[in-house]
Design a protein that fits this description.
- This protein is α+β, with helices and mostly antiparallel strands and 218 residues long.
- It has two domains: 152 residues, Glutaredoxin (3-Layer(aba) Sandwich), CATH 3.40.30.10; 44 residues, Zinc finger, ZZ-type (Wheat Germ Agglutinin (Isolectin 2), domain 1, 2-Layer Sandwich), CATH 3.30.60.
- It has seven helices and twelve strands.
- A seven-stranded mixed β-sheet has the order 2-1-5-4-3-6-7, with helices on both faces. It has a three-stranded antiparallel β-sheet with strand order 11-10-12.
- It is elongated.
- 30% of the residues are buried.
- The C terminus is likely disordered.
- The chain binds zinc ion (2 copies).
- One zinc ion binds next to strand 11 and helix 7.
- It is an enzyme of class 1 (oxidoreductase).
- GO terms for molecular function: protein-disulfide reductase [NAD(P)H] activity; zinc ion binding.
- Keywords: Metal-binding, NAD, Oxidoreductase, Repeat, Zinc, Zinc-finger.
- Its EC number is 1.8.1.8.
- This is protein-disulfide reductase.
Length: 218
């Protein structure tokens, strides 16, 4: 896995150094992100919707830190126009970043994940499978609960939760035998339903795009 992660993101990432007496950034070895659900955050300081979304995402990130710091992380991929803007923007982020100077890799990642606008939050399962290209909507509608769902790791391709609209449905899935094609995620199952629910057997999905494989980083 480490090799494939390297292919995608390089050897090291940056994190803001909170210790003001030393360097601005801490170098983060890519191995620290191994076996985690990863969200790749395409964003830029000059983009107003990004300026609105970043604090919301940061709030969720901080909320889940104590419980999920070893299961989830975020990597900022900048579309800023220069390094000064990047520095100013990244300072507001509690997660990791691809270094600004690696423009080539930023471009390849955007292309790889078909990013056609910002902000975009791509979420990858720990095995490299694409979980959702629409992490932004999940965060906007569910907040930190979205991250809790993502890290459950089990993916039901093509199935969403009818209650919270989480798409795709992640983790345990509860199906109503009375309502046709009615599915609930774990969190919504707790809120109840008028009919009896069946827990669908958890089979690991092999469907979904393998993102680690075949990325052209040459
Ligand atoms: Zn739900
Ligand atoms: Zn029902």
């Amino acid at each position: 896995m480490a090799t494939e992660l390297n292919d995608l993101l390089g050897e090291t990432l940056l994190a803001v150094n909170t210790d003001v007496t030393s360097e601005s950034y801490r170098q983060v070895p890519i191995d620290e992100l191994k076996n985690k659900v990863l969200a790749i955050y395409f964003s830029a300081h000059w983009c107003p919707p990004c300026q609105q979304f970043t604090p919301k995402l940061a709030e969720c990130y901080k909320k889940i830190q104590s419980e999920l710091h070893d299961k989830f992380d975020i990597i900022f991929v900048s579309s800023d126009e220069d390094e000064t803007s990047f520095d100013e923007y990244f300072r507001t982020m509690p997660w990791k970043a691809l270094r600004y100077s690696d423009r080539e890799r930023s471009k390849k990642l955007s292309k790889k994940f078909n990013v056609d606008g910002i902000p975009t939050l791509i979420v990858l399962l720990a095995d490299g499978n694409l979980l959702t290209e629409n992490g932004r909507n999940d965060i906007a509608s569910k907040g930190a609960e979205a991250v809790r769902s993502w890290v459950q790791g089990l993916l039901w391709p093509g199935i969403s939760c009818n209650a919270c609209q989480m798409n795709p449905l992640v983790g345990q899935r509860y199906n109503c035998s009375t309502c046709d094609k009615y599915n609930l995620c774990f969190a919504c199952q707790n809120n109840g339903h008028e009919h009896e629910l069946t827990l669908m057997s958890p089979e690991l999905s092999t469907i979904g795009e393998i993102v680690w494989k075949g990325i052209d980083t040459s």
